[in-house]
Amino acid sequence: MRLSVHTCKLLAAAAFLAVVAACSPIYTDHGYAPPEELLDELVVGESGREDVLEVAGTPATMNDAYGESWFYIGSRFRQDGYRETEEVERRVVAISFDEEGTVSNVEQYGLRDGRTVAISRRVTETNVGRLTFIDQLLRGLGRIDPSRAFSR
After folding, report:
1. Is 79 helix (H, G, I), strand (E, B) or coil?
2. Is the dihedral of CA 44, 48, 49, 51 positive or negative?
3. Which of 57, 61, 62 is nearest to 35 (CA)?
């Protein structure tokens, strides 16, 4: 069976479009940060927690360390074919409240405002690493109660 010139051109065009589509970036969104229009509805000094919940929704996280603050975090990631996924956009909205539960401040941060935070990997040390196998075995024997082992 022979393919016509027209069919060959259509197959070549389809293959070209498939290659172009495979190379186009894929964007994915994670989290939620309320848009500017919704944040404009909040009035510093007047809006309360209920107003914020109604306008912006449930926050991603809360912090009570320096007064109550609610955080909304949204990120956009870009995947180019075989390359590693890259975060291209981030919005963090921080809404602070005073003691009465009224909005005291609304701040926004972007990807450029971020910084890397070193996570402390504190691990509780055990004494097992310093003991030999024989030491561990002998310590374990001292904890056996024969009356409990054979009683029913």
Report:
1. strand
2. negative
3. 57
Q: What is the pLDDT of residue 131?
A: 67
Judge contact between 66 and 58, C-beta under 8 A. Answer: no
Query: Strands 26-31 and 69-79, how do they pair?
Result: antiparallel
Nearest CA to 59 out of 105, 95, 108 is that of 95
What is the tens place of the pLDDT at every residue in 85-111? 899 999 999 999 998 999 999 999 888
Cβ(94)–Cβ(66) below 8 Å: no
Q: Is pLDDT of 20 > 70?
A: no
State how beta strands 26-31 and 61-63 pair.
unpaired
Going by pLDDT thresholds of 50, 70 and 90, the confidence category of residue 2 is confident
3's tokens: 């393919």
Averaged confidence pLDDT in the chain: 80
Q: pTM of the entire structure? A: 0.61
Helix (H) or strand (E) holding 144: none
Contact (Cβ atoms closer than 8 angstroms) between residue 56 and residue 35: no
Query: Two tokens at 1?
Result: 């069976």
DSSP secondary structure letters along 83-106 = SPPEEEEEEEEEEEE-TTSBEEEE
